[in-house]
Amino acid sequence: MYEMHGAKFLFEFPSRKMADHIKMGEWRWRNKLMILDWWSPTVGYFPGATKLDWVWVRLLGIPCHLWSQKIFKQIGDICGGWIETEEEAILRNLLKWARIKVKG
Question: Domain named DUF4283: which ranges (predicted)?
């Protein structure tokens, strides 16, 4: 499960069959109905008029020899202005991706 924004979450299932099965059910959390729908490129989309102060960017495929705060900052500056690097990336706890916060 990945938190997107607001009350939106992205669930990842091991198979399409399991996702279909779960989507067919009625789900509630804290007594509120949850609406499950398939992901699309516009899910979580912010209208053009929406101004964000910052966003998290997930960096995939960074080679280990380039895994450094200096490189993350350079990438962040290209993306609009680096603000911070997620602690998990700094500590190298998960080398599949790194997340950096950049100016919106």
Answer: 2-44
The model's pTM: 0.56
Distant-in-sequence, close-in-space partners of 52: CB < 8 Å, separation ≥ 6: 46, 104
Which residue type does 59 have?
A: L
Q: Tokens 């007594």 — which residue?
A: 31
Look-up of token digits 């069959």: 17
What integer pLDDT is reported at residue 23 of this predicted model? 86
Q: What does the alpha-carbon distance between residue 52 and residue 14 come to, in Å, rounded to a whole number?
A: 33
Both structure tokens of 71:
């490189």
Positions of E strands within the chain: 2-3, 9-10, 27-29, 32-34, 54-60, 82-85, 97-103
Q: What is the pLDDT of residue 104?
A: 82
Bridge partners (DSSP) of residue 99 are: 58
